[in-house]
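Protein modeling request. Please complete all fields; requests missing the sequence field cannot be processed.
Requester role: graduate student
Desired output: 3D structure, C-alpha cell encoding
Chains: 1
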Amino acid sequence: MVACIISHSDVNDAFVAEAKACESAVLFAIELGFKFVQVEGDSLTVIRKLSSDSLDKSIIQPIIIDIKAKLQLFEKITFSHVGRQGNAAAHALAKIHTQFQLPRYWVKEAPQEVEQVTIADLR
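Delivered output (123 residues):
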C-alpha cells in the first residue's frame, strides 16, 4: 500500500479535483517504478473518461490527456470505480491533509487513521 497527500488549493471544481488526484496517483506510481497498478476512485465520470478511447471534451480534458499519455509506462494499469463506502482510506487521508503543508508520501505504511479504515475494509 502506498498513500500520498498533495494539496491542490487552486481547484474549485469537484471533477477537476478528482482528476488531479488520479493524476497524482499515476505520477506517484511512476516515480516508485510500479509496473502493475490499480487506481481506484469514487468519481465514476473520471474513471469512465480514463477507460474510454473517445476524445474527452470536458473541463478535465487536459488532465485526462496527460494521464493517458503516461499509460504506456505501465505493463498494466486499470482504473476502477469504487463507491464512497469502498474509498474510506482516501477520505481518511483527505481529512488529515490540513496537517501537512507540503506533499506527504507513505510507502508500506500510512497514517494510523488510514490504516484503521483499510483494515476495516478488508474484513
